[in-house]
Amino acid sequence: MNSKEKLIENLKSYKDKIIKDTKDFIDNNIRFSIKSKLTLSYLFMFTIISIIFVYLLIFLFLKTNTINSYESFFYMLMFILIFKGFEVFINTILIYKISKRALKPVDNMINEVNEISINNLEKRLDVSGTNNEFKDLAKTFNQMLDDINISVQNQKRFVSDASHELRTPISVIQGYVNLLDRWGKDDKEVLDEGIQAIKDESESMKRLIESLLFLARGENNKNIVQKENFNLKYLIDEIVKESSMIDKNHTIKTDKNEDLKIFGDKNLIKEAIRIFVDNSIKYTDGGGTIKINSYTGESNVYIVIEDNGIGISKEDLEKIFDRFYRVDKSRSRESGGFGLGLSIAKYIIDTHDGEIKIYSKLNEGTIVSIMLPI
User: Fold this and answer.
1) How far, in Å, CA of 186 to CA of 53, rounded?
2) Per DSSP, which regions of the chain are E strands?
3) Against a cut of 0.70, is the pTM above it?
4) Half-sphere exposure of 215 (CA within 13 A, CB side)
5) How far is the C-alpha of 253 from the C-alpha of 237, rounded, in Å?
6) Which residues contact 104 (CB under 8 A, 6 or more apart)?
7) Least trusted range by pLDDT, from 4-13, 143-152, 322-331
8) Are 166 and 205 spatial neighbours (Cβ–Cβ below 8 Å)?
9) Who has greater pLDDT, 170 or 4?
10) Phi-psi bin for 337: left (phi > 0), alpha (psi -120 to 50), beta?
11) Which residues share a beta bridge with 291?
12) Half-sphere exposure of 222 (CA within 13 A, CB side)
């Protein structure tokens, strides 16, 4: 490569660098609003039309020889240019005002959005007026705010309920520690009572925290779900046998338990069924009957837990899957649990693409139907 070719190559590289640097500067430092872009776009269009119009006039005058001298041509050209320049100026003002008016809903939306914060999620965008894209955008944004608001309120309630549930065992432990500090050193009976109470409350806190962590991991898709093919009949027989051994006050049996296999996490599904069975035991008087049946229907498997207990009211049915919700407010934590069991069961069934339906009537009993795909 000779010196001339090298110089040309360097000039090309330098030119490309200047173009790139200029483009980067414009992209990073010059920001046009939508109104400015619309105004410039329409102005450019009208300017092109005006230039074409001027050229056509000049061509027409030259073609028809209507111009007597160059001086007349010059004055005519100046008149046209001044007129067109004035026209462009007027068009610029008009186009800017029209663009500003057309984009006024955007400015209103920006002002309204700036008023929204985590402490003011009740504010919504105005969706009145004609049906257009801005109204559709406002509706979509409002729907997103509704979802965010529900999520934030659920989170606040969850934190409040969790704090309340943890406060009770901590207070009990603190109370027994103070009791032991005062009397437990010399009184063996007080010492034994205090140690047992602290152990019970510590175990209660452990179960609560494990339940909370399980639900939290579920929300973040971090729970390990090990799905495999297993025989549901054997699993239900196992639950019936274990529950009957633990609880001697109720009749726990199965009337229909088909021999079938499903694909899922055996341990998680067992936990979900046990949660419903435990609830039936808690809310069914001694001597009552609890049935656990299974059968197939179309392409699904149905697991039905039925009891003849106290039942659930219509108002409570709508909330039983809410975290920390207890149907019987008068029950203690020892008999009523934390109100997290049904939330965990629902999460497990949802993870298996299943569905839970609950039918209940006060003083007659409850039927829980779990549907799982085969």
Assistant:
1) 111
2) 228-231, 251-253, 261-264, 289-297, 300-307, 355-361, 365-373
3) no
4) 21
5) 9
6) none
7) 4-13
8) yes
9) 170
10) left
11) 253, 306
12) 7
Alpha-carbon separation of residue 114 from 17, 109, 110, 121, 141 (angstroms): 40, 9, 6, 11, 13
> How far is Cα 222 from Cα 97, in angstroms, rounded to an integer?
54
297 Cβ contact list (under 8 Å, min separation 6): none
Beta bridge partners of 369: 304, 357
Alpha carbon distance 147, 126 (integer Å): 18
Q: Which amino acid is it at 40?
A: L
Give pLDDT, residue 225.
Answer: 85
- Per-residue model confidence (pLDDT) at position 192: 83
**For residues 304 and 367, is the Cβ–Cβ distance under 8 A?**
yes
Residue with the two structure tokens 């837990």: 305
Largest CA distance in the chain: 130
First CA to last CA distance, the chain: 74
| Percent of the chain that is helix, strand, coil (3-state, to 5) | 65, 15, 25
- Secondary structure in 3-state letters for 131-155: CCHHHHHHHHHHHHHHHHHHHHHHH
